Each structure stands twice: as C-alpha cells, then as structure tokens.
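Homework help board

Subject: predicted structure for assignment chain

Our instructor gave us this sequence and asked us to write out the predicted structure in token form, then describe one feature. I got the tokens but I'm not sure how to describe them. Can anyone check?
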Amino acid sequence: MNRTTKIIALLLVLAMLVTSALVAFAAPSGGVNELPRADDASGSTTGVPDYALQTVAGGELRLSALRGKPVLLDFFSATCTHCQAHAPFVVDLARRYKDLTVVNLAANNPYVESEKVEAYRQAAKIENTIVYAPSELFALYLAPDENGVIGVPQAVLFDANGKLVARFTKWQDTDKPAIEAAIVKNLKQKPVASSRKPE
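My token output:
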C-alpha cells in the first residue's frame, strides 16, 4: 500500500469509530427506571452504576445519596437556548417545593465549558446543586426523539424510594401543570422501609 492509500484507510477507520460512538449515544434509551443504591456500586441490583458526579462547586454527588426524597433530575446544556428558557421554571419548582430535591445535570465538559455553566447558573439564579453528567448517564435515563437522538432539555422525576415515576421529554409551557401535578402527587408519598436484609 502506498502512503495515500494508508491515509485513506486510516481515515475510513476513524470515521467508522466516530459513527459507532454517535450511534451508541443516539440509540433508544430511557430504559432504566430506578436510582442506584449506596451498596450497589456495580449497578448489579438496579442496573445503574452509582456515579460520583462532580459538582460545579468542586464537590461530589452520588446518585444513591438522592434516595429518601422525591427527586427531579433536570438535564440541560449551558449552550441550549431552550434550556435557558425553561431554567426559571425549574428554579421556581426548587424554591416552592422544599421537600423536592432538584439536581441540574449539565451536558457540558467541565474542563472547557465551566465558565458557560457558571454563566448559566448565574443567569437563571440556580441555588440547587449542578453537576457535570457523563453522556452514558444521559443515555440511561433520557428518551430519544423520533430520529433516535437524545436531546435536552429533559427531566426525570423519582419518588422517595428511587423509582422513576415520570419522564418529561419536552419543556413546553403547556407541560408545566402536568409536571407540577406529578411532583405534588409524589411529595405526598412517604419512603417505604427497605425490605433488604443487612449483608
């Protein structure tokens, strides 16, 4: 093989690798319906690894730590104008429903887009926790659109027992009453004591 042929072959291999990665992220998802448990590091019980997510403040948040109260996970990107438009509604939910844990999950790279996320936080006046979420976490919980692509904004609501009870794939103004109704319904439910025996 001459040099030109080798370069073309290498480019074709790279293109196939990039395409397969995109297809993997665009594959139908949203099949996981539970938060991980603290003793489930491998995800063997719930099917979800207990990610240690980096907060914008430099701390760490584990998904398992969110069990015990209803949780709204708000997936966004700091560069998404639709996300920017719905952010005040999420902030309002966090302020009005004190027994609801709201966590904003950024699709942005913390190493190159931290300033954009901080500007997003300040513009929306977000006071609750913001974490950087890996793409595989988006693929676990979010639903793809009609083209199989996972987009933002989206949100998922879990009850106090860590069970997914609602998934909101579009943040239109007409969806707000349904979102609030789902939150109110789950705030009335109390956590169920675990039936799992200590190891």
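Reply (TA_rk): Your tokens look well-formed. For the description, you could write something like this. Helices lie at 3-26, 81-96, 114-124, 135-141, 176-187. That's the kind of observation they're looking for.
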